[in-house]
Amino acid sequence: MSLVASDETRFPPITRRLRLGFVGGGRGALIGQVHAMGARLSNRWQAVAGALSSDPEIALASGRDWLLERVYTDYDEMAQREAALADGIEAVVISTPNWTHKNIAEAFLKKGIDVICDKPLTTMVEDALELVRLQRDTGLIVGVTYPYTSHAMVRQARELVLAGELGRVRQIHVEYMQDWATEPDDPNFKGARWRRDPQRMGRASATNDIGTHAFHLAHFVTGLEMVECRAEFHVCGAPKAMEDTAFVQTRYEGGVPGTLWVTQAAPGNYCGLRIRVYGDKAGLEWDQEKPEFLRFNRLNQPETVFVRGHGAGMVTQAERLITLPRGHPEALSDAWANLYTEFAIAIEARRNGKSVPAGLLNYPSVADGARGVKFVDACADSHEAGSVWRDCKLVI
Ligand SMILES: NC(=O)c1ccc[n+]([C@@H]2O[C@H](COP(=O)([O-])OP(=O)(O)OC[C@H]3O[C@@H](n4cnc5c(N)ncnc54)[C@H](O)[C@@H]3O)[C@@H](O)[C@H]2O)c1
Question: Which InterPro entries match (predicted)?
Answer without folding.
Answer: Gfo/Idh/MocA-like_OxRdtase_N, Gfo/Idh/MocA_oxidoreduct, GFO_IDH_MocA-like_dom, NAD(P)-bd_dom_sf
